[in-house]
Design goal:
heterodimer; A: alpha/beta; six-stranded mixed β-sheet; four-stranded antiparallel β-sheet; 10 helices; 37% helix; globular; disordered N terminus; disordered C terminus; B: mainly alpha; 11 helices; 0% strand
Chain lengths: 291, 276
C-alpha cells in the first residue's frame, strides 16, 4: 500500500480513530500482521546461561499500535531485535502476514534509538536508500523521498548533511527512511528516549498523526509508561528474569491523545503502581473515559 | 502540526567558509618568508664554501639545471614515466589491499591467517623484493610495479581491515533491514562507512608506494625520476641530483594537497569531524 492509497483508505474509512479500524477480532484471526509463537531467547556465556525471553506469544493485528513496556532487562529490545530479524530466537517461530520469517527484511523496518543514518549521504539520499536497494527507479525514488520528507515536516532540509540535524530531526529522517519502503510493520526501539522532553512531546503527537494517516502496524518499545499509554492500542507489559509478557492492557481511548489528558495521566499512574506493587491491578480505561 | 515542528527544527549551519577571504593573506606571507629564509641559508652556506661547489651546489646552479632539464623535455618525460608507474602500482595496491583488508575485517579466520602474514610483510622494506621481481618478471615494467605493489599493499590492507572493524554495527543493521545483494551493501554501505578511518591508510600507502618506486627506479634503466638521480650521481652532477630531489618533493606535496587534502576535506565535512 503506498502512501496515497493509505491516505484515501483512511479517509474513506468509517471512523478517523485509529483503533476503530483494528477492532475486528474475526479479521484478526485470519490475517495477523505479526505472530510471535512460543519464542525463547537464551544467552549463553561461559559462566552461566541467561533466559532473556521465556515463551513469548504475541499476535498483532494489521494497523494496530502495540507498545512493549517494561523496565530495562525485561527483554523488550531483545524481542524487537528478534522480530526485526537481527537476532535469532533460541526457540519458537515468527510469522509476518502468515509467512515464516527468519532474517531481516524490508517488510519490518526499524527506527533505532540512536540515529542510524548514513553520514555520507544527505537527508534525501538517506530516505531514498531503502528504495535504491529495493531497485526502485531514480525518478520514483526522488518523488517518494520528497513525499515522506514532507510527511515528517523536513522537506526544506532534503540537502542537509546528517551531522547538521538536531536529535529530533534525525529521528524524523529515520521515520521517513523507514516509511519510504512501505513496510508491513514499523518497529520502533525507544525512538524518543534520547530526546529532550519538548521534542519528545512534539514527535509523539506527530507519530500519532502519521500512524493514523498511513495505517501502519507499529510495534513500539518503551520504558516510559506515559508514552505507552499515550500511543498504544494495546500495551504489552513485560517483566524481567526471565523476560516474559506479564499482561496486556487494551486502551480504547480515542486518538489523537494528549499527554496531559486525565485519562492518559490517570491510567499511566495506575499502571506504574501495578509495576511497583504486584498486588495492584490497573483498571481498564473504559471506566475512566474523559475528555 | 506545522507550528509544532518549529520547536524542533533548527536551520543547518553554514556549509563551509567562503572560498575567498579579503584581507592580508598572512598564511601565504608566513610560508613565503619561511622558504625565502631557507633559500637564504642555503645560499649563505654555499658562499661560505665549507664544502666545494661540486658537492654543495649554490641554489642558482640547481635552478639553472632545472631550467635546462625542463627545456630539453627530459624532466617531463621522466615525470610522466614515474607517475604512470605510480598510478598503475598504487591503483593495484588499493584494489588488492581493499580485497585483502575487507576480508580480514569481515572474517576472523582470514584475519588470523592472512592478517598475520600481512603484518609480517609490512616490516619488510619493499626494495628487498627487487632481486626476486627481476628474476620473476625480468627487467620490465612488471617488475617495478610489483615492487611498488609490495610496498604499499600491506599498509592499505591493514588500514582497510581496521576500517571495516570500526564501522558502527547499527549502520550495518540499518542497511541489512533493507535487503539487497551483498555487492550493493559493499558499495553503498561498507566502502563509504570505512572512509574516515581509511583516509590515513590511503595516504600512508601512497607514501610507501612513492618511496618504493623511487628506490626501484634508482636501480632500473629507463628515463624516470629515480633514474635521472642515478645518472646525476654517475656524472658527478650534484646540482642535477638536487634539482630532481626538489621535483620529487614538489610532486609529493602536490599529491598530498590536491588528492588527499580534498578527500580529507570531504570526509570531515560530511561526517562533521571538523571543529566548526
Amino acid at each position: 500500500m503506498t502512501l496515497e492509497t493509505a491516505l484515501t483508505a483512511r479517509a474513506e474509512g468509517p471512523a478517523k480513530s485509529g483503533s476503530a479500524l483494528v477492532r475486528a477480532p474475526e479479521a484478526a484471526a485470519t490475517s495477523a500482521a505479526l505472530e510471535v509463537r512460543g519464542v525463547f531467547k537464551r544467552f549463553e556465556t561461559r559462566r552461566h546461561d541467561t533466559l532473556a525471553l521465556s515463551d513469548i506469544n504475541l499476535t498483532v493485528r494489521p494497523g494496530e499500535f502495540i507498545c512493549l513496556l517494561g523496565p530495562s532487562g525485561c527483554g523488550k529490545s531483545t524481542l524487537l531485535n528478534i522480530i526485526a530479524g537481527f537476532d535469532k530466537p533460541s526457540g519458537g517461530e515468527m510469522l509476518v502476514g502468515g509467512n515464516r520469517v527468519t532474517g531481516p527484511g524490508r517488510d519490518r523496518v526499524v527506527v533505532f534509538q540512536e540515529a542510524a543514518l548514513f553520514p555520507w549521504l544527505n537527508v534525501r539520499s538517506n530516505v531514498e536508500f531503502g528504495l535504491k536497494l529495493a531497485g526502485v527507479g531514480k525518478a520514483e525514488r526522488r518523488e517518494r523521498a520528497e513525499q515522506y520528507l514532507k510527511l515528517v515536516g523536513l522537506e526544506r532540509f532534503h540537502k542537509a548533511y546528517i551531522h547538521e540535524l538536531s536529535g529530533g530531526m534525525k529521528q524524523r529522517v529515520q521515520l521517513a527512511r523507514s516509511l519510504a519502503v512501505d513496510p508491513e510493520i514499523l518497529l520502533m526501539d525507544e525512538p524518543f528516549a534520547a530526546l529532550d522532553a519538548q521534542t519528545r512531546d512534539v514527535l509523539q503527537e506527530e507519530l500519532q498523526d502519521i500512524w493514523q494517516r498511513t495505517g501502519k502496524t507499529i510495534v513500539f518499545v518503551t520504558h516510559n509508561v506515559r508514552e505507552a499509554v499515550l500511543l498504544a492500542d494495546r500495551v504489552i507489559v513485560m517483566s524481567p528474569s526471565p523476560g516474559r509478557i506479564k499482561r496486556e492492557i487494551s486502551i480504547s481511548l480515542e486518538h489523537p491523545r494528549s499527554p496531559d489528558s486525565h485519562a492518559v495521566v490517570d491510567l499511566a499512574a495506575d499502571i506504574r503502581e501495578e509495576l511497583r506493587n504486584p498486588e495492584h491491578e490497573a483498571k481498564a480505561p473504559e471506566s475512566r473515559w474523559s475528555i | 502540526m506545522v507550528d509544532l515542528t518549529a520547536v524542533d527544527i533548527i536551520p543547518p549551519r553554514a556549509r563551509s567558509k567562503p572560498r575567498f577571504k579579503l584581507g592580508v593573506p598572512w598564511k601565504a606571507i608566513r610560508i613565503a618568508i619561511f622558504y625565502l629564509g631557507l633559500l637564504g641559508i642555503w645560499k649563505l652556506i654555499s658562499v661560505m664554501e665549507i664544502w666545494p661547489s661540486y658537492t654543495f651546489p649554490p641554489p642558482e646552479d640547481v635552478f639553472e639545471d632545472l631550467k635546462l632539464l625542463a627545456q630539453d623535455g627530459i624532466i617531463w618525460h621522466a615525470i610522466r614515466t614515474t607517475m604512470e608507474r605510480m598510478a598503475i602500482g598504487y591503483s593495484l595496491s588499493i584494489l588488492i589491499g581493499l580485497v585483502i583488508g575487507i576480508s580480514m575485517g569481515s572474517f576472523k579466520w582470514v584475519d588470523e591467517t592472512v592478517g598475520s602474514l600481512v603484518l609480517g610483510l609490512q616490516s619488510l622494506p619493499s626494495i628487498t623484493w627487487f632481486p626476486l621481481a627481476i628474476l620473476w618478471f625480468g627487467l620490465s615494467e612488471h617488475a617495478i610495479i610489483f615492487v611498488v605493489l609490495m610496498g604499499s599493499v600491506n599498509s592499505i590492507a591493514i588500514s582497510s581491515a581496521a576500517g571495516v572493524k570500526s564501522i558502527p554495527p547499527l549502520l550495518l543493521r540499518a542497511s541489512n533491514m533493507f535487503g539487497g545483494p551483498w555487492w550493493q551493501k559493499l558499495i553503498y554501505v561498507i566502502l563509504p562507512a570505512m572512509l574516515p578511518s581509511m583516509v590515513q591508510g590511503l595516504k600512508l600507502g601512497w607514501s610507501f608506494a612513492w618511496r618504493s618506486l623511487l628506490a626501484a627506479e634508482l636501480l632500473f634503466v629507463s628515463i624516470s625520476l629515480g633514474h635521472l638521480l642515478s645518472i646525476g650521481r654517475d656524472l658527478n652532477d650534484v646540482s642535477e641530483v638536487v634539482s630532481i630531489m626538489l621535483v620529487i618533493v614538489a610532486l609529493g606535496m602536490a599529491m598530498d594537497r590536491i588528492v588527499f587534502g580534498r578527500l580529507e576535506g570531504w570526509v570531515n565535512e560530511r561526517w562533521g569531524l571538523r571543529a566548526a
